[in-house]
Write a structure and sequence with these properties.
Elements lengths: L1 H28 L36 H4 L2 E9 L5 E9 L3 H13 L6 E2 L9 H6 L2 E2 L21 E3 L7 E2 L5 E2 L18 H8 L3 E2 L7 E2 L2 E3 L4
Parallel strand pairs: 3-4
Antiparallel strand pairs: 1-2, 5-10, 6-7, 6-9, 8-10
């Protein structure tokens, strides 16, 4: 019996020693996040997130003319998203306005205007309806003006749509695009006359679709007013 007790005792002691050794090794190798550096207080959010990687190559639909594509630049912009966090995205813009668009988004960022998401639209295959439904802020999209055969300013990379779900296109009949959207000036990300977004674009002599008379396109800003 003594031998049995000795064997049991030694087994328990061995198990305890092994547990201690494993715990020690784990504690040495366990990864811990470093403390964030001290940051000065400011009116801008401090958290930075990265949701979009650089697109090395944009795949365009075959019917997009090379003469149009050759006019475009891919630019990177920062913005403050609806979680009040710093985010970034890519836009396809006409080379003529590429520096100006970067300045516009820099001003929107500095003044704290909130943007849902910025994207080229490539992940939606440049579908205007899908981009609006997903509240995508974008520039280039090779398409015609609704109800006509005339190319939109978006087809030239010369117009920008901001937060489409908060800033719908509204016909005089009150039909809205995107569907089920509501224009409410109290909601974040909404463009209003005399507000931050409208003032920033106006500073660079861009025209706002919210000033149009026959219908309203609250999301739309363009260089030539069309």
């Amino acid at each position: 019996m003594k031998k049995i007790y000795i064997i049991i005792f030694l087994s328990i002691i061995t198990a305890i020693i092994i547990t201690i050794i494993i715990s020690f090794i784990y504690s040495k190798n366990k990864y811990t996040h470093p403390s964030p550096p001290h940051q000065k207080k400011s009116g801008l959010p401090k958290k930075r997130i990265s949701t979009i990687k650089k697109e090395d190559k944009i795949i365009f639909p075959n019917y997009f003319p090379d003469s149009i594509i050759s006019q475009l630049d891919l630019i990177h912009v920062k913005y403050i998203n609806y979680n009040n966090s710093i985010d970034s995205g890519y836009l396809l813009v006409n080379k003529k306005i590429h520096l100006e668009v970067q300045s516009i988004f820099k001003d929107l960022f500095t003044r704290g205007f909130l943007i849902s998401k910025v994207s080229t639209g490539v992940e939606f295959n440049f579908s205007d309806s899908l981009m609006m439904e997903n509240n995508i802020t974008s520039c280039f999209n090779y398409r015609q003006v609704n109800g006509s055969r005339r190319l939109s300013q978006h087809a030239l990379g010369m117009a920008i749509d901001i937060n489409p779900r908060q800033n719908p296109f509204i016909y005089s009949t009150d039909k809205k695009y995107p569907l089920n959207s509501i224009y409410d000036t109290e909601v974040i990300g909404t463009v209003i006359g005399g507000g931050i977004c409208e003032e920033v674009f106006k500073k660079y002599n861009w025209k706002w679709g919210g000033d149009w008379r026959s219908f309203k396109d609250y999301q739309h800003f363009s260089k030539n007013g069309h």
